[in-house]
Amino acid sequence: MNLIFLGPPGAGKGTIAAMVKEAYQIPHISTGDLFRANIKNETELGKRVKAILASGDLVPDEVTIKMVDNRLGEDDAKNGYILDGFPRTIAQADALKEMSKVDYVINFVLEREDILKRLSGRRVCKSTGRTYHILYNPPKVEGIDDETGEPLIQRDDDKEEAILNRLEVYDKSTAPLIDYYKERGLLIDLDASKSPEEVFAELKNILK
Ligand code: ADP
Ligand code: ADP
Asked: Which domains does the chain have, with CATH numbers?
């Protein structure tokens, strides 16, 4: 099963993708996570994209498409995948069409007010990428990752200025993909406002 998770930043795509990965045994491919791993490891790609991620702008299509093409070519993606955060532009969606056949595009629907609450309270473990929320999904010990014991951080792009830019970028470049996939009969809306368990249950129903 080849899935795309579409939706604004903070809608809960990564959280639900982790649950789908477990339940369906397909890889969770997050372009944001791939870029952050490159930044952490100080690769050439990481150096090129670091400032772009911090500002909340999009990495150029050409760079992003090449990275995804490589990742989809790996063995574990042969039996399905969840693409989280890609495509984010029409050019990326056109490129994906040439790389792979998509089964469903799940559109995470959430009010702007809730998006802001989720993004501003998000905390992550830098080494594992595990995601928490200070109110909705707090760690067992405040500020500490449950499994590794490392301190949690707030992503640079989850600070107010970058959040506003990312939402503008979403509206301008990514939201047009809703119509793009609707026209192709692939889009399914998912109410992302409930608890992660409820959202996941609704998604499982859809995928049956
Ligand atoms: P969120 O899940 O909060 O939207 P992501 O982790 O998906 O954030 O993305 C973080 C950043 O990585 C984006 O703001 C952008 O700079 C870059 N990025 C991720 N995916 C793409 C993409 N498909 N095209 C261009 N840039 C991307
Ligand atoms: P995305 O990948 O779409 O950017 P995340 O999965 O990282 O979104 O979720 C954004 C923030 O909201 C995180 O802090 C996460 O813990 C929290 N969150 C995710 N899903 C829910 C939900 N259904 N209800 C409440 N909080 C949620």
From this structure: 2-111+165-207 (3.40.50.300)
